[in-house]
Specification:
The protein starts with 13 loop residues before the first strand and ends with a strand. Helix 1 runs parallel beside helix 2 and helix 4 crosses helix 5. It is α/β, with parallel strands linked by helices. Strands 1, 2, 3, 4, 5, 6, 7 and 8 form an eight-stranded mixed β-sheet that branches. Helices cover about 40% and strands about 20% of the residues. The protein has a single domain, classed as Alpha-Beta Complex (2-enoyl-CoA Hydratase, Chain A, domain 1), CATH 3.90.226.
Length: about 190
């Protein structure tokens, strides 16, 4: 929204496109765009997204800010929301998906750097960190969906892929519908 003067407000509302992996830059850009929407006087935005997921620490950052902003956020899955991107999707006060959309869950992982020496102490600490991340993400997912932490952990352990019927049943979405952007709306694509 940086190309529009702050005094301009589009009557059709604000729409934000997010089609990126979740990394530091993507999280920062998404938070910045939402902050600019508030500065332009919007109290609601629709976050239109697909994402292969990414790094949980950046998803937690964006989730924490988006969830705290004085914005009503509607999220809309346009294809597939995976892994850490589920955190961003669940910031929606109202959550929808297009027919055929999917959601993918899995446990946390660790990618060792090439040439990294793996000692018992290092592996033990990494395991604790992975377990913490799994517990933290499961707690957030459970709180947002109304499911138990144990149920969410089952999704992660099974590497579950949910279609829209399963997503409704499990509290991820409130309904299935195509995205509709009014012609008098403002649309901003997060560009990484």
């Amino acid at each position: 929204m940086t190309d529009v003067p702050l005094s301009v407000k589009f009557p059709g509302g604000a729409y934000v496109g997010f089609n990126a992996g979740v990394d530091r830059r993507a999280a920062e850009q998404l938070v910045m765009v939402c902050g600019q929407a508030i500065a332009q006087g919007y109290s609601e935005i629709t976050l239109c997204m697909t994402s292969v997921g990414g790094l949980l620490e950046h998803a937690y950052y964006a989730y924490g800010i988006l969830d705290a902003l004085p914005l009503k956020i509607t999220t809309h899955n346009l294809g597939s929301v995976q892994s850490a991107a589920n955190m961003l999707f669940l910031c929606g006060d109202q959550r929808y998906a297009m027919e055929g959309s999917t959601f993918f869950f899995h446990k946390s992982s660790f990618n060792a750097s090439e040439g990294q020496v793996l000692t018992e102490a290092f592996i033990t600490e990494r395991l604790k960190a992975i377990q913490y991340e799994d517990n933290r993400s499961a707690a957030i997912l459970a709180a947002k969906t109304g499911r138990s932490v144990e149920e969410v952990r089952e999704w992660q352990n099974a590497e579950a892929v949910m279609n829209t019927d399963m997503a409704i049943k499990n509290g991820l979405i409130h309904g299935v519908k195509p995205l509709s952007v009014p012609k008098d709306a403002y649309f901003h694509q997060v560009v990484i």
